[in-house]
Design a protein that fits this description.
With 110 residues, this protein is α+β, with helices and mostly antiparallel strands. The chain has a single domain, classed as Alpha-Beta Plaits, CATH 3.30.70.120. 24% of the residues lie in helices and 40% in strands. It contains 2 helices and 8 strands; from the N terminus they run βββαββββαβ. The strands form 3 sheets. A 4-stranded antiparallel beta sheet has the order 4-7-1-8, with helices on one face. Strand 2 and strand 3 form a beta hairpin. The two termini are 21 Å apart. The model has no long low-confidence stretch (mean pLDDT 88).
């Protein structure tokens, strides 16, 4: 357990239809995180969910305009994660961000 580091996991909740310019918002966020040197980020598409407006978002196969909930998980040191919040707030506009205390272990292949 000694090799584990204390850090933070940030979860960013947005919708599949959300955009930043012409690209999906989740893609813009991942690119932003990579450029900031964050340890890692993963995008997950939800099956069903709702947010502040109480509108149900459902992953429907063959829908012409899908709008699944999207979750972006980010892991790194607390200072790095917290420093992202102001820029993410400006990018997202409407959504939800949570930050949780974690322990993580980076694994590398030589």
């Amino acid at each position: 357990m000694d090799a584990f580091q204390n850090g933070k996991m940030m979860r960013i909740f947005v919708d599949e239809r959300d955009r930043r310019g012409v690209q999906p918002l989740y893609t813009a966020i991942v690119e932003f995180l990579r450029k900031r040197g964050i340890a890692g980020a993963t995008v997950l598409r939800g099956i069903e969910g709702f947010g502040a407006h109480q509108e149900i978002h459902v992953a429907k196969p063959f829908s012409p305009t899908p709008n699944s909930p999207v979750l972006i998980e980010v892991v790194d040191e607390e200072e790095k994660v917290r420093a992202l919040i102001p820029e993410l707030e400006a990018m997202i506009g409407e959504g939800l961000i949570t930050v949780e205390k974690i322990s993580y272990l980076r694994l590398h292949r030589s």
